[in-house]
Amino acid sequence: MALLNLHLKVWRQKNNEDEGRFVDYNIQDISTEMSILEMLDVLNEKLIKEGQEPVAFEHDCREGICGCCGIFINGRAHGPLKRITTCQLYMRHFKDGETIVLEPWRAKGFPVLKDLMVDRSAFDRIIAAGGFVAVNTGGAPDANAVPIPKHNLEKALDAAECIGCGACVAACKNASAMLFVSAKVSHLVRLPQGKPEREKRVFAMLNQMEKEGFGSCTNTEACSAECPKGISMDVIAQLRREYFRASVRQEKE
Amino acid sequence: MKLDSKIPAGNLAEKWSNQKFNYKLVNPANKRKYEIIVVGTGLAGAAAAASLAELGYKVKAFCYQDSPRRAHSIAAQGGINAAKNYQNDGDSVFRLFYDTVKGGDYRSREANVYRLAEVSSNIIDQCVAQGVPFAREYGGLLDNRSFGGAQVSRTFYARGETGQQLLLGAYSAMMRQVGLGNVEIFPRSDVQDIVVIDGRARGIVLRDMVSGKIESYIADAVILATGGYANVFYLSTNAKGCNATAIWRAHKKGALFANPCFTQIHPTCIPVSGSYQSKLTLMSESLRNDGRIWVPKDPNDKRPPNEIPESERDYFLERKYPSFGNLVPRDVASRNAKEMIDDGKGVGLTGKAVYLDFAEAIQRLGKDSITEKYGNLFEMYEQITNEDPYKVPMRIYPASHYTMGGLWVDYNLMTTIPGLFALGECNFSDHGANRLGASALMQGLADGYFIISYCIGDYLAQSKKDKLTTDAPEFKQAEKDVSDKINRLLNVNGSKTVDELHRELGMVMWDYVGMSRNAEGLTKAKKMIKDIREDFWKNVKIIGTNEEINQSLEKAARVADFLELGELIAEDALQRMESCGGHFREESQTEENEAKRDDENFSHVAAWQYNGADKPEVLHKEQLQFEFVKPSQRSYK
Ligand SMILES: Cc1cc2nc3c(=O)[nH]c(=O)nc-3n(C[C@H](O)[C@H](O)[C@H](O)COP(=O)(O)OP(=O)(O)OC[C@H]3O[C@@H](n4cnc5c(N)ncnc54)[C@H](O)[C@@H]3O)c2cc1C
Ligand code: FES
């Protein structure tokens, strides 16, 4: 274990109307064993004691699964490492004396609420538009009634791992939510249970995405590169096929 | 007050069917006239909201996170139990029932547990129909793993992310109802009070976590599904926001609180590394399928683990419990680890850890197979500790994890306030004094998908519609109480942060009300908690105002409640002068240092009644009847 002295540049913004600005903080004796959120806890404790407002940031599980946390760290969504969320970033990955820049996700679909917190409710509305299998409780057939090849299952699960953190949107120069939408479409269409509504789903979710002000996808692959769950570009390719398939079917009908 | 558990008569296997038949029904056309509030969108809350809306009720669902999909159920790793007997290894509804009652050390209600086991199979069917990708074998059929306290393989899983996949299933079912206009969601809502009018629960008061507005919502019935209170220990495996506020306020409005001292310490968590530690990360119990727990035989042996030869290691669980080995229930595993550490055999820099070793499994099954089963857990471990568990054994230590206690409910999941129901971890109903692994997810979904819709129908069918609104004086009073409390918090302007005070509470809870308890320590703890509470109200410092996002204020309101609940936990632990499950009283152990129950005096549910600020609570007892299993000294040897 070592101790670091760091220089922080943190985005401070009182609320959605405020313009916002970077504020500089120096912080001493940060253990390399701390997570970056624990480092922010230490900063906040210090600020409170000094009578200053602590930095607002979103977090809950602190183990990389709830998707709450999300900070743009030194210009990267969730920081410099691949396949982790902000809460899983440990201070051993920073150097003594380093400057760390902390900003909120920036995207039209994600208005800033305060400091490092943004409003991601658009994702909920996209799911409400079609990100489900329409079955009611009760009356489901036996779980083993329809065998699912292991390979398909694993692929579905790869896509289903999306935690809805929004890093894909933050990383994308078009602020597109294509990876998020594709992950859900891909998860469900790879399973027999998700097939009956496949056409309807892809249209409904894409429409809603557009309505929410997310940009369109130009295949820059930044989303997948920054995804903490490593969701691959394959899901976007699959969404395109699904969209094409659904369009052709619609024409026929 | 007479506690009536309302357990239906008849044979165990017929109770639930009979009850369903006897319940009154709400006619389908009338359902949309009823509004139901669901607080919490974890497995229990989201499943309930979806199922009730599908039936036609108008549902409002509340959670404190920015999206209902982030409820703490998302973090469950290992799996969910169900008595499917797909493995042909002798499982049955009765066996799951039996294991759960035994695992809970005979402190749960037989009828509730049986019902849970009975509906467990439907849960798996329902989830698969929603598109939950449970692990499968090459032939395409579902795979299972084993969890502690069971000798059959009945745990369904999706990698190490079972909770996530189940919650996304329930969440998407609920969001479908949002799209259809039957459910309205209210994220970023901090529910701070329950409103009771004419003896019935009629609504809630909350703080909008963005604007700070205090708002009221009215309904015909209120469901609480707000999860557990393990964060009373400060450090726990729960998410940072998990809290007892809603159930504690309900308690103060008249809902009895059952078995508060039944808290679970999970044996396999990543150890504390320093004072800044903000939470503890669980390493799923499923790891004990393949990982072997050991310490060096010699306390002075400071060699790196890989240099300690087999003959100088003590695989203490395998040695002491040959028939269950590393898969003994959690309370037993935790206590044994503590014993080793107390004997000076702990490992790592702090000496507060034991090894969980995969070397043998990697050799037997190959690295790929281990990666497939536990890959994400291994990655998580390496992220946090900077050590590669494929090469060196994991270091693990027990941590506060789950709370079996909670609001007292009858067989119909109703609290002692008519119209107020409690589901999932926030009720006390099914796990007795110790919960078996993979049974919380099962309970949350059983309550939410398959039980509450019947119970609530029966309640609503018998209650009259009226024209009340949130202008009723009871709502205004509750709004005022909430505002007053917030103002009081903001006006203290002392010198200690909320986290500092919470850590102080956690330390007392862990040291005196943790894995091992005694009368002297508990008495001391009660006093210490009271002192911290007083200090809190004199010394807490919160910056900012109510009319904005204010995370310190949110935390402060939660800690204020933990400081009251903590004392009740200590009191309950003090009064229960026996050991059972996770509640270990040093005064009551067998010759082999196992928990020793006292069935003659303590075969009851302890249900506490609030009696006014700073007054001792009143204890009520619900005697437990065992008709179908005979309580015996639990043995896993
Ligand atoms: C790390 C971890 C791993 C686990 N692994 C397993 C496992 O493998 N198998 C298993 O069976 N169990 C496991 N458990 C236990 C299990 O996950 C929980 O018991 C269960 O998910 C609880 O579900 P719930 O619906 O009751 O509550 P939660 O999922 O905790 O949901 C609580 C809800 O209430 C809301 N809420 C709380 N307070 C308020 C308030 N004041 N105002 C508004 N909303 C509020 C929250 O926003 C949330 O939506 C695990 C637990 C942990 C911590
Ligand atoms: S806090 Fe849950 S993913 Fe980071």
Outline the structure in words.
The complex is a heterodimer of chains A (253) and B (637). Chain A is α+β, with helices and mostly antiparallel strands and 253 residues long. Chain A has two domains: 3-103, Roll (Ubiquitin-like (UB roll)); 120-136 and 146-252, Orthogonal Bundle (Fumarate Reductase Iron-sulfur Protein, Chain B, domain 2). Chain A is 36% helix and 14% strand. Chain A has eight helices and seven strands. Chain A has helices at 36-49, 121-130, 150-160, 167-171, 178-189, 198-211, 222-226, 234-252, and strands at residues 3-12, 21-31, 72-73, 76-77, 99-103, 112-114, 117-118. In chain A, helix 2 runs antiparallel to helix 6 (198-211) and helix 6 (198-211) crosses helix 8 (234-252). Chain A is elongated and about 65 Å long. Chain B has 17 helices and 19 strands. In chain B, the strands form five sheets. Chain B has a five-stranded parallel sheet. In chain B, strands 11-15-14-12-13 form a five-stranded antiparallel sheet. Chain B is of the alpha+beta class and 637 residues long. In chain B, helix 3 (43-55) packs parallel to helix 12 (440-461) and helix 14 packs parallel to helix 16. Chain B folds into three domains: 12-264 and 403-462, FAD/NAD(P)-binding domain; 266-401, Flavocytochrome C3, Chain A, domain 1 (Alpha-Beta Complex); 473-612, Fumarate reductase/succinate dehydrogenase flavoprotein-like, C-terminal domain (Methane Monooxygenase Hydroxylase, Chain G, domain 1, Up-down Bundle). At the A-B interface, helix 1, helix 2 and helix 3 of A face helix 3, helix 5, helix 6, helix 11 and helix 12 of B. The site of flavin-adenine dinucleotide (FAD) has 47 residues of chain B, from helix 3, helix 6, strand 6, helix 7 and strand 15.
